[in-house]
Amino acid sequence: MAAKTKKATFDLNKQLEAVAEQYPTLQILNEEGEVVNEAAMPALSDDQLKELMRRMVYTRILDQRSISLNRQGRLGFYAPTAGQEASQIASHFALEKEDFVLPGYRDVPQLIWHGLPLTQAFLFSRGHFKGNQMPADVNAVSPQIIIGAQYIQAAGVALGLKKRGKKAVAITYTGDGGASQGDFYEGINFAGAFKAPAIFVIQNNRFAISTPVEKQSAAKTIAQKGIAAGLPGIQVDGMDALAVYAAVKEARERAINGEGPTVIETLTYRYGPHTMAGDDPTRYRTADLDTEWEKKDPLVRFRKFLEGKGLWSEEIENEVIEQAKEDIKQAIKEADDTPKQTVTDLMEIMYEEMPFNLKEQYEIYKEKESK
Ligand SMILES: Cc1ncc(C[n+]2csc(CCOP(=O)(O)OP(=O)(O)O)c2C)c(N)n1
Ligand SMILES: [Mg+2]
């Protein structure tokens, strides 16, 4: 007699769907720049709204110029940012100066708006050590290249802020690919257990280089990954500056009120290649998908919204563009004028006290460099 197969006492699909249902996408501005969620509207003054737009336009120009400079051989490593402005700039806009930023390699704009001079951002791109030295008043570390590693560091920094009684948060950014890494889970789990004031942003731009997000995980959203660690999560329209701002602002308030960390997934898209090192997006993305996302452009919809309020014009935008171009010209000149790094520079910044064997080598290089 054949053994009867036991039936599971739970419905897996129902379980997964019930979880996903709890993560609707927060949107405030639709693609036409119309407010579709008045209740979630953040309290931003007219000047703040204009400043947010100014930063997004400036960052788009910085991206375009960085791509050109890279093609001319005047920049090194560069990961394009166009398309992700709402996700990057509006999330940063909800922070305070004392907050600590732990970015990934695509998040140089947040560092710049946190106070990293453009010249240093260009030096970072060139692999110059000066690009990694944060000014004393900039609470940030240089962009992380190891996918997901910044999530564990952010948990630690946030715990440090808590122990010192600071009313500040640590914010970190990774991508959809980063959310598949072990470090991602370790970071959110630790921060949750210690109620550390951290904000974990996942910029889901649908691809980890060429791997589509559908192949990264069976989870229906990335936002829901927080719940197993006891963290609230929210999925946001990452092309909508107001929605991203509102989510991060609320997460920041929770964090500084001692309520612990939050996971925020922003649905976004990078228009350009993964980096300027040579991947060809046409081999893994369709033109239709590009067009679909370009219609959601964060600058277009925010511009329409501001124009509707009489806060923005072509003239203001052109002034921002000119200012950005001027600043970039100046900064790249300063980067060019920065002395090349030497072997002894690297040895000096690496150690507070140099080991004796390196001291010997140091003297040899000092001698060589003086010639
Ligand atoms: C631990 C680790 N594995 C692999 C890589 C190579 N790598 C660089 S970027 C990248 C994709 C990351 O994608 P995602 O997290 O979605 O971020 P995005 O580039 O889309 O912003 C990979 C696999 C790396 N840098 N570190
Ligand atoms: Mg990605």
Automatic annotation (TrEMBL):
<dbReference type="Pfam" id="PF00676">
    <property type="entry name" value="E1_dh"/>
</dbReference>
<protein>
    <recommendedName>
        <fullName>Pyruvate dehydrogenase E1 component subunit alpha</fullName>
        <ecNumber>1.2.4.1</ecNumber>
    </recommendedName>
</protein>
<keyword id="KW-0786">Thiamine pyrophosphate</keyword>
<comment type="function">
    <text>The pyruvate dehydrogenase complex catalyzes the overall conversion of pyruvate to acetyl-CoA and CO(2). It contains multiple copies of three enzymatic components: pyruvate dehydrogenase (E1), dihydrolipoamide acetyltransferase (E2) and lipoamide dehydrogenase (E3).</text>
</comment>
<dbReference type="GO" id="GO:0004739">
    <property type="term" value="F:pyruvate dehydrogenase (acetyl-transferring) activity"/>
</dbReference>
<dbReference type="InterPro" id="IPR029061">
    <property type="entry name" value="THDP-binding"/>
</dbReference>
<keyword id="KW-0560">Oxidoreductase</keyword>
<dbReference type="GO" id="GO:0009083">
    <property type="term" value="P:branched-chain amino acid catabolic process"/>
</dbReference>
<dbReference type="InterPro" id="IPR050771">
    <property type="entry name" value="Alpha-ketoacid_DH_E1_comp"/>
</dbReference>
<comment type="subunit">
    <text>Heterodimer of an alpha and a beta chain.</text>
</comment>
<feature type="coiled-coil region">
    <location>
        <begin position="314"/>
        <end position="341"/>
    </location>
</feature>
<keyword id="KW-0175">Coiled coil</keyword>
<dbReference type="InterPro" id="IPR017596">
    <property type="entry name" value="PdhA/BkdA"/>
</dbReference>
<feature type="domain" description="Dehydrogenase E1 component">
    <location>
        <begin position="53"/>
        <end position="343"/>
    </location>
</feature>
<keyword id="KW-0670">Pyruvate</keyword>
<dbReference type="InterPro" id="IPR001017">
    <property type="entry name" value="DH_E1"/>
</dbReference>
